[in-house]
Amino acid sequence: MVIPVRYATSLLFFHESGLVKELIHQLKYNGHQEIGKLMADWFIYQNPQLDLSRHIDLIVPVPLHPKKRKKRGYNQMTVWGENLSRYYHLPYREDILVRTVHTTSQTNKNIEQRRENVQNAFVVYQPSVYAGKHFLILDDVMTTGATIEACAETILQSVPGAQVSVLTMAMVIS
Questions:
Q1: What are the beta bridge partners of residue 172?
Q2: Using N-to-C axis directions, what is the helix angle for 146-158 and 111-118, rounded to 10°?
Q3: pTM for the complete prediction?
Q4: Does residue 138 sit in helix, strand or coil?
């Protein structure tokens, strides 16, 4: 299925080694949430003419399953999303798109395994409330796009007249 994404961009390129990988790993696994603010500031600095509020209605992160969030203690997207929200005067909502299936890590899976792993893993709460809204989906790293695709598909199938755009901290390049 082709997902009609309105806009998509990544702040950085992610390599198997290097500073970007280290920053995101520190954010994601070692509790360095200040990196989320750094990434938001960096995105804003790199895009001074961009006015997200002209096109976007709300910002939603790729959600963590409650078990993973409890284990980690936070969603690595929160600080980034909240800072973008404040700057662009857009609501940041972690309670709309929810992960209902506790999936295994995508890290060592190929594209088909990744798609299968996240298929039907998400749900939109109260979809009719958000009819016609344009969602900006945030994620840390886009590798194959399977997770973002599953989130976007869930939103588009659940919310009448919805649009989706995507912003990631980094995108894997080969």
A1: 14
A2: 40
A3: 0.89
A4: strand
Asked if 81 contacts 61 with a C-beta cutoff of 8 angstroms, the reply is: yes
Candidates 71, 83, 64, 45; CA nearest to 139 is 64
Q: Token match 């900006």: residue?
A: 136
Domain spans, the chain:
5-172
**Token duo for residue 1:** 């299925």
CA distance 162 to 131: 6
At 76-135, the pLDDT tens digits run 899 999 999 999 999 999 999 988 866 655 566 665 665 666 677 788 999 999 999 999
Q: Rg of the Cα trace of the chain?
A: 15
Using alpha carbons, select from 73, 139, 143 the residue that is nearest to residue 107: 143
- Name the architecture of domain 5-172: 3-Layer(aba) Sandwich (3.40)
pLDDT tens-digit series, residues 37-69: 999 999 999 998 999 989 999 999 999 877 877
Place of tokens 């750094």: 38
Q: HSE (CB half, 13 Å, CA atoms) of 119?
A: 8
